[in-house]
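Ticket 4471: requesting a sanity check on a complex prediction with alpha-L-arabinofuranose. Repro inputs:
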Amino acid sequence: MRRATVLLDKAFTVGRTDPRLFGGFIEHLGRSIYGGIYEPGHPTADSRGFRRDVLDLIRELGPTIVRYPGGNFVSSYNWEDGVGPTEQRPRRLDYAWMSTEPNSFGTNEFIDWCRVAGIEPMLAVNLGTRDPQDAGYFVEYCNHPGGTALADLRRSHGWEQPHDVKFWCLGNEMDAPWQTGAKTADEYGRIATEAAKIMRWTDQRIELAACGSSGRNMPTFAAWEDTVLQHTFDHVEWISLHTYLNNYRDDTPAFLASADLMDLFIEEVVAIADAVAAKRRSRKRIMLSFDEWNVWYRTRRPPESRVKPGWPVAPPILEEIYTMEDALAFGGAVISLLNHADRVRCACLAQLVNVIAPIMTETGGPAWRQTIFYPFAQMSRFGRGDVLRSRIECETYASSYYDPRGELENVYAIPAAPYLKLAAVANDNGGLSLFALNRDLREEMAVTVTARGFGDLTVAEATVLADGDLKAANTRDAPERIRPASLDGVRVDGDTLVLTLPPASWNVVRLANA
Ligand code: AHR
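Returned structure tokens:
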């Protein structure tokens, strides 16, 4: 049995979790929208074509803000194609995913879907093939009340009231060679600045996110953030980060350790943003929007695996089937995000339905939860409050993580990953939620947690996600093969708690005042 101790004090906090930390992402990509959230004719579809079975699962998952319409898709998207009478909307080639985009779902439908789901919309503008003025026009169409051509166009389309979209992304992954209209950091910094100016002049209440690197594994990472923020610092509130964890090498210990590179990535971007601030003697703090994160690798390489020939509409691409071990790595990412709640104030799980997603559907058939559904739903439900600094004593292990990007076969050393990865959140009801990942694949772990300042504790609920087969997954025919079970043997004595975590397990323990 492995052992770990955790010391918490209610007074020692990292920061408060912003509700936007629990966001998601929906792109015009594969069956994410068509056959995912939107399927007119499906037995559960409402009058607008929104699948109600999917909406129920979305509400259970609990994303608070959703990014749209891409992703790579946005970098050649004309937002005008997706508004107005559906029968008049053009069909277009989508260069990002080599598909035909029918445009039967667009911005107004997305806003309606968000309202029905109780979600804040986040929109991205195209800075790949379009210019700052078009970005400003998009804000005007969405947010201006009326009395101008574009605001009145929205009203004529049936949306009298402004959409009042607050959060806007200035393009997507503009550093990436695969991006339509990719740019150098200086080129992007200039166009993002000019777009930001027009967008904010159009609506002063909006918040703007500049594109950071499309991954820490990009050769231009860090220099990109520095240059882009030198240009955009006075014009944006946010910088974005993207990470997809992988297990290409079937090296599960390294896969489970890889979330620790997200911690490093976050801390590095914070350092760069604050260095740019220091050079300007500015007290402004740029916040981090981790607006794409997940596990994704099986349907990622080679690029042909993402593309079906013949420019189909909504082909089944990027339909990653998530296993038990994916849920563990994913849980590690959840902990990394929570533990940086002071600066990561927004994050979007990429994505939500069918495409690298916690929710899968069959066209015309049922919807079900993938393994990664559970850690996300628990984070969104129980991660609200003040994240505590966790002092963890635990043995560590070394691994090396393979993280290719394009032609680059990157390998990163992770010299000391603690077997226990944990986040603790003091909830507003006086309780405490613990999110704990046992990364030891063979040994149980006895964890002693001392939680100062909470008085006498009692266990409200303790669950574990684990399975003897790390490659097990939920499928249409076995949709509940992997689901949380009760974690037995939790003992509490005053402010001290002893847990026994099974090997390779994701655990959520909720404590209340006795
Ligand atoms: O989420 C899938 C894709 O991953 C997005 O379109 C892109 O931004 C990223 O490379």
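Notes from triage: The pocket of alpha-L-arabinofuranose is lined by residues 27, 70-72, 172-173, 214, 292, 350-351 (CB under 6 Å). Leaving this open until the requester confirms.
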